[in-house]
Design a protein that fits this description.
Largest sheet: 7 strands, mixed
Organism: Streptomyces sp. R41
CATH topology of the largest domain: Endonuclease, Chain A
Shape: elongated
Pfam families: DUF5753, HTH_31
Strand order of the largest sheet: 1-7-6-5-2-3-4
InterPro entries: Cro/C1-type_HTH (IPR001387), DUF5753 (IPR043917), Lambda_DNA-bd_dom_sf (IPR010982)
Structural class: alpha/beta
Helix content: 40-55%
Number of helices: 12
Strand content: 5-15%
Order of helices and strands: HHHHHEHHEHHEHEEEEHH
Protein name: Helix-turn-helix domain-containing protein
Domain HTH cro/C1-type: 16-75
Radius of gyration: 23 Å
Number of domains: 2
């Protein structure tokens, strides 16, 4: 998580402490405030010390409980600043998958040089509709989100228009197990691998495969995108991190370049994709 995010969360916690200590009716202890809110004292402590991220509801309740309701808008503005870095899936998917896809479409459309590392699935910009549908369905089940799967798929497919923009360059690295992971029916994966093999020749795309047998200088770790060497987007099971501090960007760029040293390209990458395709025994 970025230093900027940690600093901002700590600053929000400090502001919450200031409100508690300046309650018009007299300074409240953490225990007294917790009683007013019906919370545990540990939650109050974690919010004030920046060890837990407050929800919008938490901040509104804090402003009311400290008899300073006018401070709610200020607190919510601080939270929005935090969420520009950390975007929880629960909040993002509350209105469905299309909006999430559109946010990524906009970020990629605004970028010229895009680098990706993925160790779990084929990256969205190279997915077939059937494969994308399988992936989004799995996440809808996990997060119990609205099942606007078809709208999400259509939005994700629009992202692929960038592959045919001569002014844009994609440098994508995939770990070989991604090519063999049956997170969809074998027939769908076969079609996806056929699509991937066709991408190898695109002049806007450099596709590298890190073989399972390759010597690695770093563990594969989770996937991420780097846009114009200025912003990193990292996904985990809870949230997406949109990071733009130079420490995070430089670290991920170093990781990407290190993993690239183990990748193969061109005909060698094509052979690995073809071997994975043949192993499916699907016509």
């Amino acid at each position: 998580m970025s230093t900027d995010f940690q600093t901002a969360r700590a600053a929000l916690g400090e502001r919450l402490r200031e409100l508690r200590e300046s309650t018009p009716g007299g300074r409240l202890t953490g225990t007294a405030l917790a009683e007013r809110l019906g919370w545990t004292q540990s939650k109050v402590s974690k919010l004030e010390t920046g060890r837990q991220t407050a929800s919008a509801e938490d901040l509104k309740a804090w402003a009311e409980a400290t008899d300073q309701p006018d401070s709610a808008e200020e607190l919510l503005a601080r939270l929005r600043g935090l969420e520009s870095h950390v975007r929880s899936w629960r909040r993002q998917l509350a209105s469905g998958h299309k909006a999430v896809q559109e946010a990524h479409n906009a970020a990629q459309a605004a970028s010229t040089v895009l680098r990706a590392w993925e160790s779990s699935w084929i990256v969205g910009v190279l997915q077939t509709p059937e494969y994308a549908r399988a992936i989004l369905s799995r996440f809808a089940e996990l997060h119990q989100s609205p099942r606007d799967i078809e709208e999400g798929v259509r939005s994700r497919m629009r992202r692929q228009e960038g592959l045919y923009d001569s002014g844009r360059r994609y440098h994508i690295l995939l770990w070989e197990p991604v090519l063999r992971s049956l997170i969809c029916p074998p027939s769908v994966l076969a079609g996806q691998l056929d699509r991937l093999a066709g991408v190898v020749g695109l002049d806007t795309v450099e596709l590298g495969i890190v073989p399972l047998s390759a010597s690695l200088k770093l563990p594969p770790g989770g996937g991420f995108w780097i846009y114009d060497d200025a912003q990193v987007i990292v996904e985990n099971w809870h949230a997406e991190l949109w990071l733009d501090d130079m420490g995070s960007v430089s670290t991920h760029l170093k990781v990407w370049k290190t993993l690239r040293e183990s990748a193969v390209f061109g005909p060698d990458a094509h052979r690995i994709i073809s071997a994975a395709r043949r192993s499916l025994n699907v016509d």
